[in-house]
């Protein structure tokens, strides 16, 4: 490690040059054909399989594993993509340990489930490596649909609409499509530019035009889209970030974790990305874990996650929390920030222990301090500027059935829509199902 490793403050180059590539390589290496065959052989091919019922996109998991076992990974991939066109990314980022693998019969019997996620990656990678797109467009319907947001929900919606013969214009506020897959997940989960390659492969079906740098409310209005297109789908995600509401929140080197992750994902030279020596992350979800682990991988000496409730209530999966601990990240629960201390930039953070009082969280008088030269906020995101006229449910767009909003001809899905669980795989399902409802509406 370089001499700057123990330097206080937020500085780049904390590691030796070769360490970055190693630290940010694939978190879980892909299976080779022999390993895939052995893993597939463990499946019981259950009738009415609990794994399929646990999958938000309802992939026929026993079928695709049987196809792998028979030496037909491309056929397995087609089984996956029929239900989840972003099956390649979901194989990398989906919390399978909480979904399909959690209910696997092998897990119940032996404590070791079939490696469904890795088998899904094996199959989808095999088909995508061929380059050609496995789907063909239906005859043109002459209908045009605007999809706003090129994240998982928008991409899934656009692809399914294209297969039905509709022309799709996919708008996105950022410079690149992909949404959270491109900007919001840890780099080691989608190494080697996979998010970009997946989008390029997906739009290979044709009929999808992408316009980047076009934001709803800034460059586009919902009224104009409704007038110019036969239908509109909103997959705009959650661009706003909740405030910490702690004294000193405006001090230097206090920033949103999502911005840090996006900057890291777009960096072409991680040795030039500054990181603190003592990093504190506030939050209990996947974003908090991703920010903490990647800070450690960039060379931070001490990284601590602080969450206001107990460990069981953290939305980050147990596997993610264990991985963070394995990387040397400390997790403190039952504490909330009171004050950020420092002269200009953060120097330390004061926390108060919390207690549960009948479901409500209360701050106690007992406090402690953590040294911090960099503080990341990962306390949830919120809808930023919902288009006027759309009914809301809480702080998200209200939807009924397969994504129908309160406005005729407008659908919504993914993180911006109420009722979901903020997972990539759920966003894909919502975009896909909204597309089918849009198609049914357009063809009468």
Description of the structure:
By secondary structure, the protein is α/β, with parallel strands linked by helices. The chain has 3 domains: 33-129, Fumarate Reductase Iron-sulfur Protein, Chain B, domain 2 (Orthogonal Bundle), CATH 1.10.1060.10; 144-239 and 383-442, FAD/NAD(P)-binding domain (3-Layer(bba) Sandwich); 242-377, FAD/NAD(P)-binding domain. It is 33% helix and 19% strand. The protein has 16 helices and 19 strands. The strands form 6 sheets. It has a 5-stranded parallel β-sheet with strand order 4-3-2-5-19, with helices on both faces. Strand 12 (335-341) and strand 13 (348-357) form a beta hairpin. It starts with 9 loop residues before the first strand and ends with a helix. The mean pLDDT is 95.
Compact summary:
It contains 16 helices and 19 strands. It is of the alpha/beta class and 444 residues long. Helix 5 (73-83) packs across helix 8.
Largest sheet: 5 strands, parallel
CATH architecture of the largest domain: 3-Layer(bba) Sandwich
Helix/strand/pairing class, anyone? alpha/beta
Number of strands: 19
User: How would you write the strand order of the largest sheet?
Assistant: 4-3-2-5-19
End-to-end separation in angstroms reads 64 Å
State the helicity in percent bands: 25-40%
Which superfamily, in CATH terms, is the homologous superfamily of the largest domain? FAD/NAD(P)-binding domain
Overall radius of gyration: 23 Å
Can you tell me the CATH class of the largest domain? Alpha Beta
Number of domains: 3
CATH topology of the largest domain: FAD/NAD(P)-binding domain
Taking all residues together, what is the mean pLDDT? 95
Task: Detail the poorly predicted runs.
Answer: none
Indicate the overall shape: globular
Strand content: 15-25%
Q: How large is the count of helical segments?
A: 16
